[in-house]
Fold each of these.
Amino acid sequence: MSCTRTKNTLEIRIEETKKKLEEMVSIVSIWAEMVGDYCLLQHVKQLIFTPQGGRFPSECINENPGQIFLIYVLQNESTRLSMAYEALKSVQNIFKKDLSSTTWDLHQLNLFQNMIDRTVERLQFCVGEQLSGSSETKYANLKIYFEKLNGILEDKGHSRCAWEIVRMEVLRNLEYLSKFFGSSQR
């Protein structure tokens, strides 16, 4: 009985996590649309970045520091693209760290990383001249936010729980940024 219950719970957690990560892929696809990369958009729509660990692991609950807030203040199209570039570049850097403790599907993770890499490359092309040194001060909150996420990974030795915290935080803030982009384009 308990083995069946555990299996059902695990299946539910896998499905819930799959949905959350599909949302992350959807957010990346919005940014791909912004830079006009329709080929990338099609691949992102097919991508399912599915960790096998399910929802946020119960053994990690006590380790979760709570939401780490990041506030986006963007005035115009060039600022939005520049912010998207800086945010995705930081996501790119985080997801290139030691992921060996995660239970995520490595093939799907590699696809996700490739999508991020390509989107960062496209955004860099779009915002090229705007990046001349001023992004450090212009996006100080963004830099602090990703430093906190990197700190969580380092403090917890890139553990499974640390990666789950980072995944949840990145997803939460990418969703927020995506909503901001969507509302500002109407």
Amino acid sequence: MSLPDWAPAANDEPVVWQGQPRQRVVHLGVAGGVVLALIVLASIAVIISNGLLPTELSAVVGVALALLVFAVPAGGAWLWRRSTRYVLTDAALYHRTGVLSLTVTELRLSKIQNTSYSQGIFGTIFGHGTVTVDTAGSQGAELTLQQLDGPKAVHQRIAEAAGEAKGERRDGIPGSLDTWKAVRAEVRRLRAATTGDR
């Protein structure tokens, strides 16, 4: 995987994971738009059948209004999915959003303090959810990755990458091997100094 042009990362940062909100977000927007359009058309049919407005005017206004209430949720969901991207490298997590104006959020993995994921009842059934990333010193969630397929796997990838960036090993022991060798050498030096052994 290559780093997208919009990510302000160093070119040598390898991409660990890329994603975006799931495709079904658009399907839900289309379904919501259809329901709203049907409600508008049914309302116009009632207005026409009761003779409250002229038939031609009601039909034209009704169809135009039905198209508008369909297009807003369907188009909004499509634009949101199309303009939202997530990229995880070995050094940072990037979130891109925006259609006319671009916003890119960068979280250095070494600053990530906590990650979590959540799934509602439908998320549990259909395998989607939200991943939340907190950084040290922030109030609340620093970054929320919404409507992801497989949020548990994404959560684990972010947590592992953050741990590796901080020098934590996968076996749960904090610090790198070099750090622990330095600690051992210092303990031996202190022991020798206190006991008089050289």
